Amino acid sequence: MLPTISRLFTGILFPAVLNDIMSGEEVFYMNIALLGATGRVGQAFIKEAQKHGHMEIFALVRSAGTVLPIPEKHIITGNARRREDVSRLISKADTVVSCLGTDGDDTLSAAMTHIIDGMKRHHVQRLITIGTAGILQSRLMPDQYRFESAESKRKSTRAAKEHARVYEMLLAEDLDWTIICPTYLPDGDAAGVYRFEQDRLPEDGAEITVGDTAHFLYRELISPQFVRKRVGLAY
C-alpha cells in the first residue's frame, strides 16, 4: 500500500492546503532512499521534509565526508552507477526519491536500471523522480514529446532524450512511479503557489523555483495523485 493521505487536490496548490492536509489526516511514517541529495532539488527536498518531521532520509553520495542535514549514519558513500551501492541504499527504505541530473552522459538511465532492480529486490513499490518538461506531451503535436516539437526552445535535446529513456523504462515496469517535470528551474524558496497538470506543462508556464519543485515533490509523497503519470509544473 502507498504511504498516503486520502484527500486529493488538483490544479493549484497554496501553502494553507498542505497545512490542512497535515492537520486533518493520518500521515504514514516513511523511510526515503534519496539519490541526488547534493543537487539543488535534492537539498531543497531535505529542507522541505524536515519541516514536517515524519520522514527518515537515507542519501547516496559520491564523496566520503559529504555533509548533509541528516544523521551521518544515514549518508551512504557510493555511486548511482553501481548496482550494489543503489541496492544498499534502497534496502533501508520503503520509498525512493531520485533528484539525479543527466550529468552530460547516461548516468540517469544507468542509475534508473539499478533503482528498478533494487526496488524489485527489496520489495519497494513507490518511486518519485525529477524529470524535465521536455518529456511532457506537446500541446501543438500531442503525439510528440515537447522536446520534439516547436514548443521547446532548447537547442540541445540530449538531456531530454535521457529523461525520455527513463520514462519509457518506467512505463514497462509494475511500479508506482511519478515523474515530476518542472520547466526552467531558477533558485528560490518555496512559495507554495503554482500550477500542475498531468502529462502536459501548464499553459504558458515558463519557470518554477527549486523550492517549489521540492514542495510539490513532498506533497506528492504524502498525498499521491499522479501514480504512473508525468506531471508538469510551472507558475
Tell me what you see in this structure:
There is one protein chain. This protein has 235 residues and is an alpha/beta fold. The chain has one domain: Rossmann fold, CATH 3.40.50. Helix content is 30%, strand content 19%. It contains six helices and nine strands; from the N terminus they run βαβαββαβαβαββαβ. It has a nine-stranded mixed beta sheet with strand order 1-8-9-7-6-5-2-3-4, sandwiched between helices. Strand 2, helix 2 and strand 3 form a beta-alpha-beta unit. Helix 2 packs across helix 6 (210-222), helix 3 packs across helix 4 (107-121) and helix 4 (107-121) runs parallel beside helix 5 (158-171). The longest helix is centred in the middle third of the chain and has 15 residues, at 107-121. It is globular and about 50 Å long. The protein starts with 11 loop residues before the first strand and ends with a strand. Mean pLDDT is 90; it is low at 1-11 and 13-24.
Secondary-structure map with pairings?
Blueprint: E1 12-13, H1 15-24, E2 30-35, H2 40-50, E3 55-61, E4 75-77, H3 83-90, E5 95-98, H4 107-121, E6 126-130, H5 158-171, E7 176-182, E8 194-198, H6 210-222, E9 229-234
Parallel strand pairs: 2-3, 2-5, 3-4, 5-6, 6-7, 7-9
Antiparallel strand pairs: 1-8, 8-9
Strand order of the largest sheet: 1-8-9-7-6-5-2-3-4
- DSSP, total strands: 9
Biggest sheet record: 9 strands, mixed
CATH structural architecture: 3-Layer(aba) Sandwich
Number of helical segments? 6
Enumerate the spans where pLDDT stays under 50 for 5 or more consecutive residues. 1-11, 13-24
Q: What integer is the average pLDDT?
A: 90
Helix/sheet category: alpha/beta
Query: What would CATH call the class?
Result: Alpha Beta
Number of domains: 1
Q: Mind telling me the C-alpha Rg?
A: 17 Å
CATH superfamily: NAD(P)-binding Rossmann-like Domain
Distance between termini?
Answer: 32 Å
SSE series: EHEHEEHEHEHEEHE
